[in-house]
Amino acid sequence: MSEMLLTAYDGAILGPIAKVLGWLMNGTYTLMQMIGLDNVGLSIIIFTIIIYTLMFPLTYKQQKFSKMSQKMQPELQAINKKYQGKKDQASMIAMQEETQAIYQKYGVSMMGSCLQMLIQMPLLFALYRVFMNVPAYVTGVKDNFTVLVNGIMSTGGFEEKMTKLMTDFKILTQPVANFTAPDESAVANSIVDVLYKLNSTGWDALKDAFPSLSDNISSTYEAVSHVNNFVGMNISDTPWHIITSNFSSGHFLLVIAALMIPLVSYISQIASMKLMTSATANNTAQGDAMAQQMNMMNKVMPLFSLVMCFTVPVGLGIYWIISALVRVVQQFLLNKHFDKIDMDDIIKKNQEKAKKKREKMGISENQISNAAKMNTKRMADANRHQVISEEQEAELEKVNEMRTRAKAGSMTAKANMVRDFNERNSRK
Question: Which residues neighbour 376 within 8 Å (Cβ) at sequence distance 6 or greater?
Fold first, then answer.
Protein backbone atom coordinates (compact mmCIF):
# COMPACT_ATOMS: atom_id res chain seq x y z
CA MET A 1 0.00 0.00 0.00
CA SER A 2 1.19 3.51 -0.83
CA GLU A 3 2.25 5.96 1.83
CA MET A 4 -0.63 7.51 3.68
CA LEU A 5 -1.39 11.12 3.01
CA LEU A 6 -3.88 11.98 5.69
CA THR A 7 -6.97 14.05 5.25
CA ALA A 8 -6.08 17.72 5.53
CA TYR A 9 -8.76 20.40 5.48
CA ASP A 10 -9.44 21.26 1.83
CA GLY A 11 -11.31 24.57 2.12
CA ALA A 12 -10.65 27.05 -0.69
CA ILE A 13 -9.35 29.79 1.65
CA LEU A 14 -8.43 28.12 4.93
CA GLY A 15 -7.14 24.90 3.32
CA PRO A 16 -3.88 26.34 1.87
CA ILE A 17 -3.28 28.39 5.04
CA ALA A 18 -3.82 25.30 7.21
CA LYS A 19 -1.30 23.38 5.08
CA VAL A 20 1.37 26.05 5.59
CA LEU A 21 0.68 26.13 9.33
CA GLY A 22 0.71 22.31 9.29
CA TRP A 23 4.23 22.34 7.85
CA LEU A 24 5.35 24.66 10.63
CA MET A 25 3.64 22.48 13.24
CA ASN A 26 5.29 19.40 11.74
CA GLY A 27 8.66 21.15 11.88
CA THR A 28 8.10 22.09 15.54
CA TYR A 29 7.15 18.51 16.45
CA THR A 30 10.10 17.06 14.50
CA LEU A 31 12.60 19.31 16.32
CA MET A 32 11.13 18.35 19.67
CA GLN A 33 11.18 14.69 18.67
CA MET A 34 14.91 14.99 17.98
CA ILE A 35 15.52 16.03 21.59
CA GLY A 36 13.23 13.31 22.96
CA LEU A 37 10.16 15.50 23.61
CA ASP A 38 7.74 13.92 21.13
CA ASN A 39 4.58 15.28 22.71
CA VAL A 40 1.68 16.85 20.81
CA GLY A 41 0.44 18.94 23.77
CA LEU A 42 3.87 20.50 24.31
CA SER A 43 4.19 21.07 20.55
CA ILE A 44 0.85 22.89 20.53
CA ILE A 45 2.06 25.18 23.33
CA ILE A 46 5.36 26.06 21.62
CA PHE A 47 3.77 26.35 18.18
CA THR A 48 1.01 28.68 19.48
CA ILE A 49 3.62 30.93 21.11
CA ILE A 50 5.61 31.05 17.83
CA ILE A 51 2.54 31.93 15.74
CA TYR A 52 1.36 34.70 18.06
CA THR A 53 4.89 36.08 18.24
CA LEU A 54 5.00 36.23 14.42
CA MET A 55 1.63 37.99 14.42
CA PHE A 56 2.74 40.56 17.01
CA PRO A 57 3.51 43.32 14.43
CA LEU A 58 -0.10 43.07 13.21
CA THR A 59 -1.36 43.21 16.79
CA TYR A 60 0.81 46.28 17.41
CA LYS A 61 -0.62 48.09 14.36
CA GLN A 62 -4.13 47.19 15.41
CA GLN A 63 -3.57 48.56 18.91
CA LYS A 64 -1.96 51.73 17.57
CA PHE A 65 -4.98 52.35 15.37
CA SER A 66 -7.24 51.80 18.39
CA LYS A 67 -5.30 54.43 20.35
CA MET A 68 -5.51 56.81 17.40
CA SER A 69 -9.26 56.23 17.17
CA GLN A 70 -9.61 57.43 20.75
CA LYS A 71 -7.93 60.72 19.82
CA MET A 72 -10.16 61.13 16.74
CA GLN A 73 -13.42 60.12 18.44
CA PRO A 74 -14.53 63.59 19.69
CA GLU A 75 -14.10 65.09 16.21
CA LEU A 76 -15.83 62.16 14.50
CA GLN A 77 -18.73 62.37 16.96
CA ALA A 78 -19.04 66.11 16.24
CA ILE A 79 -19.37 65.38 12.50
CA ASN A 80 -21.98 62.70 13.15
CA LYS A 81 -23.94 65.16 15.31
CA LYS A 82 -23.66 67.85 12.65
CA TYR A 83 -25.23 65.67 9.94
CA GLN A 84 -27.63 63.74 12.18
CA GLY A 85 -30.97 63.21 10.46
CA LYS A 86 -29.72 64.52 7.08
CA LYS A 87 -30.31 61.89 4.42
CA ASP A 88 -29.91 63.94 1.22
CA GLN A 89 -27.06 62.98 -1.07
CA ALA A 90 -25.17 66.25 -0.73
CA SER A 91 -25.13 66.01 3.08
CA MET A 92 -24.03 62.39 3.02
CA ILE A 93 -21.17 63.13 0.65
CA ALA A 94 -20.14 66.18 2.66
CA MET A 95 -20.17 64.06 5.84
CA GLN A 96 -17.99 61.43 4.18
CA GLU A 97 -15.54 64.07 2.98
CA GLU A 98 -15.28 65.72 6.39
CA THR A 99 -14.75 62.31 7.99
CA GLN A 100 -12.03 61.55 5.46
CA ALA A 101 -10.41 64.89 6.29
CA ILE A 102 -10.23 63.89 9.99
CA TYR A 103 -8.49 60.63 9.09
CA GLN A 104 -6.05 62.56 6.85
CA LYS A 105 -5.43 65.01 9.68
CA TYR A 106 -4.29 62.14 11.94
CA GLY A 107 -2.45 60.38 9.12
CA VAL A 108 -4.37 57.08 9.26
CA SER A 109 -6.45 55.14 6.76
CA MET A 110 -10.22 54.80 7.12
CA MET A 111 -9.70 51.07 6.65
CA GLY A 112 -7.69 51.17 9.87
CA SER A 113 -7.14 47.73 11.32
CA CYS A 114 -9.23 45.94 8.68
CA LEU A 115 -6.11 44.66 6.94
CA GLN A 116 -4.73 43.28 10.19
CA MET A 117 -8.05 41.56 10.92
CA LEU A 118 -8.24 40.16 7.40
CA ILE A 119 -4.83 38.54 7.94
CA GLN A 120 -5.31 37.44 11.54
CA MET A 121 -8.74 35.82 11.34
CA PRO A 122 -7.96 33.27 8.58
CA LEU A 123 -4.74 32.35 10.42
CA LEU A 124 -6.59 31.68 13.66
CA PHE A 125 -9.34 29.65 11.99
CA ALA A 126 -6.74 27.66 10.06
CA LEU A 127 -4.88 26.93 13.31
CA TYR A 128 -8.11 25.48 14.68
CA ARG A 129 -8.25 23.08 11.70
CA VAL A 130 -4.66 21.94 12.27
CA PHE A 131 -5.17 21.24 15.98
CA MET A 132 -8.43 19.39 15.33
CA ASN A 133 -6.68 16.91 13.02
CA VAL A 134 -3.03 16.77 14.03
CA PRO A 135 -2.11 13.50 12.20
CA ALA A 136 -3.08 15.09 8.87
CA TYR A 137 -0.22 17.56 9.27
CA VAL A 138 2.32 15.99 11.65
CA THR A 139 4.23 13.06 10.18
CA GLY A 140 5.55 11.82 13.53
CA VAL A 141 2.00 11.35 14.82
CA LYS A 142 0.70 9.92 11.55
CA ASP A 143 3.30 7.16 11.48
CA ASN A 144 1.92 5.61 14.69
CA PHE A 145 -1.26 4.55 12.83
CA THR A 146 0.24 2.98 9.69
CA VAL A 147 0.46 -0.70 10.81
CA LEU A 148 -2.99 -0.70 12.44
CA VAL A 149 -4.67 0.94 9.44
CA ASN A 150 -3.16 -1.67 7.12
CA GLY A 151 -4.50 -4.42 9.42
CA ILE A 152 -8.00 -2.90 9.54
CA MET A 153 -8.17 -2.56 5.76
CA SER A 154 -7.16 -6.24 5.40
CA THR A 155 -10.12 -7.33 7.57
CA GLY A 156 -13.33 -8.33 5.79
CA GLY A 157 -16.31 -6.07 6.44
CA PHE A 158 -14.17 -3.32 7.98
CA GLU A 159 -16.29 -0.68 6.21
CA GLU A 160 -19.42 -1.48 8.24
CA LYS A 161 -17.47 -1.84 11.48
CA MET A 162 -15.73 1.54 11.10
CA THR A 163 -19.02 3.22 10.12
CA LYS A 164 -20.74 1.80 13.21
CA LEU A 165 -17.84 2.89 15.40
CA MET A 166 -18.00 6.41 14.01
CA THR A 167 -21.79 6.53 14.49
CA ASP A 168 -21.78 5.09 18.02
CA PHE A 169 -19.21 7.59 19.27
CA LYS A 170 -20.62 10.52 17.25
CA ILE A 171 -17.32 11.25 15.54
CA LEU A 172 -17.41 14.08 13.02
CA THR A 173 -14.70 14.47 10.42
CA GLN A 174 -14.08 17.14 7.81
CA PRO A 175 -14.47 16.00 5.07
CA VAL A 176 -16.87 13.21 6.06
CA ALA A 177 -15.10 9.85 6.43
CA ASN A 178 -15.62 7.51 3.47
CA PHE A 179 -14.64 3.85 3.98
CA THR A 180 -15.86 2.71 0.54
CA ALA A 181 -13.91 5.15 -1.63
CA PRO A 182 -12.17 3.57 -4.65
CA ASP A 183 -8.90 5.24 -3.65
CA GLU A 184 -7.15 3.21 -0.91
CA SER A 185 -5.28 6.27 0.32
CA ALA A 186 -8.57 8.12 0.87
CA VAL A 187 -9.94 5.15 2.84
CA ALA A 188 -6.77 5.03 4.97
CA ASN A 189 -7.11 8.75 5.63
CA SER A 190 -10.69 8.32 6.81
CA ILE A 191 -9.71 5.51 9.19
CA VAL A 192 -6.95 7.60 10.77
CA ASP A 193 -9.29 10.59 11.06
CA VAL A 194 -11.69 8.45 13.10
CA LEU A 195 -9.04 6.65 15.16
CA TYR A 196 -7.42 9.91 16.25
CA LYS A 197 -10.72 11.22 17.58
CA LEU A 198 -11.56 8.05 19.55
CA ASN A 199 -11.48 8.31 23.33
CA SER A 200 -10.27 5.49 25.57
CA THR A 201 -13.72 3.85 25.57
CA GLY A 202 -13.72 4.01 21.78
CA TRP A 203 -10.43 2.11 21.61
CA ASP A 204 -11.99 -0.65 23.75
CA ALA A 205 -14.88 -0.79 21.28
CA LEU A 206 -12.34 -1.02 18.45
CA LYS A 207 -10.88 -4.15 20.07
CA ASP A 208 -14.36 -5.68 20.20
CA ALA A 209 -14.92 -4.86 16.52
CA PHE A 210 -11.51 -6.24 15.43
CA PRO A 211 -10.59 -9.00 17.93
CA SER A 212 -7.87 -10.42 15.65
CA LEU A 213 -6.07 -7.05 15.82
CA SER A 214 -6.26 -6.76 19.61
CA ASP A 215 -2.48 -6.70 20.19
CA ASN A 216 -1.95 -4.26 17.32
CA ILE A 217 -4.70 -1.99 18.67
CA SER A 218 -3.18 -2.04 22.17
CA SER A 219 0.31 -1.15 20.92
CA THR A 220 -1.03 1.62 18.65
CA TYR A 221 -3.14 3.05 21.47
CA GLU A 222 -0.10 3.02 23.74
CA ALA A 223 2.03 4.84 21.16
CA VAL A 224 -0.67 7.42 20.39
CA SER A 225 -1.40 7.91 24.11
CA HIS A 226 2.31 8.57 24.70
CA VAL A 227 2.51 11.40 22.18
CA ASN A 228 -0.96 12.69 23.17
CA ASN A 229 -0.39 12.57 26.92
CA PHE A 230 -0.60 15.93 28.68
CA VAL A 231 -0.43 15.88 32.51
CA GLY A 232 -2.03 12.44 32.45
CA MET A 233 -4.80 13.35 29.95
CA ASN A 234 -5.16 12.19 26.35
CA ILE A 235 -5.44 15.42 24.33
CA SER A 236 -7.80 13.74 21.85
CA ASP A 237 -10.27 13.14 24.72
CA THR A 238 -12.72 15.81 25.82
CA PRO A 239 -12.54 17.14 29.41
CA TRP A 240 -16.15 16.02 29.92
CA HIS A 241 -15.33 12.41 28.97
CA ILE A 242 -12.24 12.45 31.23
CA ILE A 243 -14.30 13.79 34.15
CA THR A 244 -17.17 11.30 33.78
CA SER A 245 -15.00 8.25 33.11
CA ASN A 246 -12.53 8.93 35.92
CA PHE A 247 -14.92 10.19 38.60
CA SER A 248 -16.65 6.82 38.89
CA SER A 249 -13.30 5.01 39.07
CA GLY A 250 -11.99 7.37 41.75
CA HIS A 251 -9.17 8.97 39.69
CA PHE A 252 -9.85 12.41 41.16
CA LEU A 253 -6.52 13.95 40.12
CA LEU A 254 -7.45 13.41 36.47
CA VAL A 255 -10.91 14.85 37.17
CA ILE A 256 -9.31 17.98 38.65
CA ALA A 257 -6.86 18.23 35.73
CA ALA A 258 -9.73 17.98 33.23
CA LEU A 259 -11.74 20.62 35.13
CA MET A 260 -8.78 23.00 35.01
CA ILE A 261 -8.82 23.10 31.19
CA PRO A 262 -12.17 24.98 30.84
CA LEU A 263 -11.63 26.96 34.07
CA VAL A 264 -8.17 28.23 33.10
CA SER A 265 -9.47 28.96 29.59
CA TYR A 266 -12.29 31.05 31.12
CA ILE A 267 -10.00 32.98 33.46
CA SER A 268 -7.36 33.65 30.79
CA GLN A 269 -10.02 34.87 28.35
CA ILE A 270 -11.38 37.29 30.97
CA ALA A 271 -7.87 38.60 31.72
CA SER A 272 -7.18 39.10 28.01
CA MET A 273 -10.47 40.94 27.45
CA LYS A 274 -9.99 43.21 30.48
CA LEU A 275 -6.51 44.22 29.42
CA MET A 276 -7.72 44.96 25.89
CA THR A 277 -10.52 47.21 27.11
CA SER A 278 -8.74 48.89 30.02
CA ALA A 279 -6.93 51.31 27.74
CA THR A 280 -10.14 52.43 26.02
CA ALA A 281 -12.55 52.38 28.95
CA ASN A 282 -11.83 55.91 30.08
CA ASN A 283 -12.14 57.38 26.63
CA THR A 284 -15.38 55.79 25.57
CA ALA A 285 -18.75 57.23 26.41
CA GLN A 286 -20.89 55.05 28.61
CA GLY A 287 -23.91 55.34 26.36
CA ASP A 288 -22.02 54.60 23.21
CA ALA A 289 -23.64 51.67 21.36
CA MET A 290 -20.33 50.22 20.24
CA ALA A 291 -19.01 50.28 23.79
CA GLN A 292 -22.10 48.42 25.01
CA GLN A 293 -21.65 45.78 22.31
CA MET A 294 -17.99 45.34 23.25
CA ASN A 295 -18.91 44.95 26.93
CA MET A 296 -21.47 42.32 26.01
CA MET A 297 -18.94 40.43 23.86
CA ASN A 298 -16.37 40.60 26.66
CA LYS A 299 -18.85 38.81 28.94
CA VAL A 300 -20.13 36.28 26.40
CA MET A 301 -16.83 35.13 24.87
CA PRO A 302 -15.22 33.83 28.10
CA LEU A 303 -18.48 32.03 28.96
CA PHE A 304 -18.52 30.52 25.48
CA SER A 305 -14.93 29.34 25.99
CA LEU A 306 -15.87 27.83 29.38
CA VAL A 307 -18.77 25.80 27.96
CA MET A 308 -17.04 24.75 24.73
CA CYS A 309 -13.89 23.55 26.48
CA PHE A 310 -15.88 20.76 28.13
CA THR A 311 -16.89 19.29 24.76
CA VAL A 312 -13.87 19.86 22.48
CA PRO A 313 -10.60 17.86 22.61
CA VAL A 314 -8.15 18.78 25.35
CA GLY A 315 -5.62 19.75 22.65
CA LEU A 316 -7.91 22.52 21.41
CA GLY A 317 -8.48 23.68 24.99
CA ILE A 318 -4.70 23.92 25.46
CA TYR A 319 -4.50 26.08 22.35
CA TRP A 320 -7.22 28.43 23.64
CA ILE A 321 -5.49 28.76 27.02
CA ILE A 322 -2.02 29.41 25.60
CA SER A 323 -3.28 31.84 22.97
CA ALA A 324 -5.17 33.81 25.66
CA LEU A 325 -2.12 33.85 27.96
CA VAL A 326 0.11 35.03 25.11
CA ARG A 327 -2.40 37.80 24.33
CA VAL A 328 -2.41 38.77 28.02
CA VAL A 329 1.38 39.17 28.02
CA GLN A 330 1.38 41.03 24.69
CA GLN A 331 -1.45 43.34 25.75
CA PHE A 332 0.21 44.11 29.08
CA LEU A 333 3.42 45.09 27.28
CA LEU A 334 1.51 47.12 24.67
CA ASN A 335 -0.45 49.02 27.33
CA LYS A 336 2.82 49.86 29.11
CA HIS A 337 4.36 50.93 25.81
CA PHE A 338 1.50 53.19 24.72
CA ASP A 339 1.31 54.77 28.19
CA LYS A 340 4.90 55.92 27.80
CA ILE A 341 4.81 57.29 24.26
CA ASP A 342 3.38 60.61 23.05
CA MET A 343 0.48 59.95 20.66
CA ASP A 344 0.88 63.45 19.18
CA ASP A 345 4.35 62.46 17.95
CA ILE A 346 2.89 59.35 16.30
CA ILE A 347 0.17 61.48 14.68
CA LYS A 348 2.82 63.86 13.33
CA LYS A 349 4.86 60.97 11.93
CA ASN A 350 1.74 59.45 10.37
CA GLN A 351 0.90 62.77 8.73
CA GLU A 352 4.41 63.10 7.29
CA LYS A 353 4.28 59.52 6.02
CA ALA A 354 0.87 60.08 4.40
CA LYS A 355 2.07 63.35 2.84
CA LYS A 356 5.12 61.67 1.30
CA LYS A 357 2.90 58.91 -0.07
CA ARG A 358 0.61 61.48 -1.73
CA GLU A 359 3.59 63.35 -3.13
CA LYS A 360 4.86 60.11 -4.67
CA MET A 361 1.49 59.73 -6.37
CA GLY A 362 1.66 63.35 -7.57
CA ILE A 363 -1.27 64.51 -5.42
CA SER A 364 -0.97 67.85 -3.59
CA GLU A 365 -2.90 68.92 -0.49
CA ASN A 366 -4.63 71.70 -2.48
CA GLN A 367 -5.82 69.19 -5.09
CA ILE A 368 -7.45 67.02 -2.44
CA SER A 369 -9.08 70.01 -0.74
CA ASN A 370 -10.30 71.57 -4.00
CA ALA A 371 -11.62 68.25 -5.29
CA ALA A 372 -13.58 67.73 -2.08
CA LYS A 373 -15.04 71.26 -2.26
CA MET A 374 -15.96 70.96 -5.94
CA ASN A 375 -17.58 67.58 -5.37
CA THR A 376 -19.71 68.90 -2.53
CA LYS A 377 -20.62 72.05 -4.57
CA ARG A 378 -21.67 69.94 -7.57
CA MET A 379 -23.90 67.78 -5.42
CA ALA A 380 -25.43 70.84 -3.74
CA ASP A 381 -26.10 72.48 -7.14
CA ALA A 382 -27.65 69.28 -8.44
CA ASN A 383 -29.98 69.13 -5.46
CA ARG A 384 -30.91 72.82 -5.86
CA HIS A 385 -31.72 72.38 -9.57
CA GLN A 386 -33.76 69.33 -8.74
CA VAL A 387 -35.82 71.36 -6.22
CA ILE A 388 -36.36 74.18 -8.76
CA SER A 389 -37.41 71.72 -11.45
CA GLU A 390 -39.91 70.09 -9.10
CA GLU A 391 -41.37 73.50 -8.18
CA GLN A 392 -41.77 74.46 -11.85
CA GLU A 393 -43.50 71.19 -12.59
CA ALA A 394 -45.94 71.71 -9.74
CA GLU A 395 -46.73 75.24 -11.02
CA LEU A 396 -47.42 73.99 -14.55
CA GLU A 397 -49.73 71.31 -13.23
CA LYS A 398 -51.61 73.97 -11.29
CA VAL A 399 -52.03 76.12 -14.40
CA ASN A 400 -53.25 73.20 -16.49
CA GLU A 401 -55.76 72.30 -13.82
CA MET A 402 -57.11 75.87 -13.88
CA ARG A 403 -57.41 75.74 -17.64
CA THR A 404 -59.44 72.55 -17.60
CA ARG A 405 -61.86 74.11 -15.13
CA ALA A 406 -62.43 77.26 -17.29
CA LYS A 407 -66.11 78.17 -17.89
CA ALA A 408 -67.49 78.21 -21.43
CA GLY A 409 -67.37 81.67 -22.97
CA SER A 410 -64.80 82.96 -20.47
CA MET A 411 -61.49 84.56 -21.49
CA THR A 412 -59.62 81.46 -20.21
CA ALA A 413 -61.81 79.18 -22.34
CA LYS A 414 -61.17 81.31 -25.44
CA ALA A 415 -57.44 81.29 -24.72
CA ASN A 416 -57.54 77.50 -24.46
CA MET A 417 -59.25 77.32 -27.88
CA VAL A 418 -56.52 79.48 -29.45
CA ARG A 419 -53.81 77.33 -27.82
CA ASP A 420 -55.41 74.10 -29.06
CA PHE A 421 -55.72 75.55 -32.58
CA ASN A 422 -52.05 76.56 -32.63
CA GLU A 423 -50.92 73.14 -31.33
CA ARG A 424 -52.91 71.32 -34.06
CA ASN A 425 -51.43 73.52 -36.79
CA SER A 426 -47.88 73.08 -35.47
CA ARG A 427 -48.20 69.28 -35.70
CA LYS A 428 -49.21 69.44 -39.41
Answer: 90, 93, 94, 97
The CA radius of gyration of the chain, in Å to the nearest whole number, is 34
Per-residue model confidence as pLDDT tens digits over 350-399: 777 767 776 777 655 555 555 545 555 554 555 555 444 555 555 556 55
CB 234 within 8 A of CB 271: no
Q: Considering the entire predicted model, what is its pTM?
A: 0.70
- What span, in angstroms and rounded, lies between the C-alpha atoms of 239 and 254? 9
Residues in contact with 28: Cβ distance below 8 Å, sequence separation at least 6, in sequence order: 43, 46, 47, 50
Whether 90 and 25 have beta carbons less than 8 Å apart is answered as: no
Spans of the chain, pLDDT less than 70? 1-12, 110-117, 278-295, 354, 358, 362-428
Q: What is the DSSP letter of 13?
A: T
For the chain, the average pLDDT equals 78
Tell me whether strands 233-234 and 229-230 are parallel, antiparallel or unpaired: antiparallel
Q: DSSP string of 123-155?
A: HHHHHHHHHHTGGGT-HHHHGGGHHHHHHHHTS
Per the CB < 8 A criterion, the answer to whether 314 and 230 are in contact is yes
What is the DSSP track for 237-262? S-HHHHHHHHHTTT-HHHHHHHHHHH
pLDDT of residue 362: 67
| CB count in 10 Å sphere of residue 226 | 13
The string of DSSP codes covering 183-243 is: -HHHHHHHHHHHHHH--HHHHHHHHHH-GGGHHHHHHHHHHHHHHHEETTEETTS-HHHHH
Give the residue extent of every domain in the chain. 381-427
Give yes or no for a contact between 14 and 127, defined as CB atoms under 8 angstroms apart.
no
Cβ–Cβ under 8 Å, residues 93 and 144: no
- Residue 170: which region, alpha, beta or left (left: phi > 0; alpha: psi -120 to 50)? left
Largest CA distance in the chain: 118
